[in-house]
Design brief:
DNA polymerase, domain 1, 96 residues
Length: 96
Amino acid sequence: MKVAIEHYLLRTYKLIQRAFPDGVKQEDYFPLLALLYGEMSDRNLAEVMAHSTGKDYSIVLNDVYAVGSTYAPDAKAIAKLKKHLLACGYAEWLEE
């Protein structure tokens, strides 16, 4: 049984759904985690990404921890992703 997402994560979830209507592709997964990492707590980021990707929360949480410690993000991939997210309401999301 899938648990509903918390109301305070709904805007983030909807942003991701707008940006990735067919789901988050594997090549965008870590850059997206890296982009959102500075804007959200580890657990909230893991929860919203688990809902967005269908991955198990504990796996996503470990990936979030990796982004915070050992993952070296590809700057070009993050810049491309940020540009895409800006077209989907990322700037408004950041303001909240």
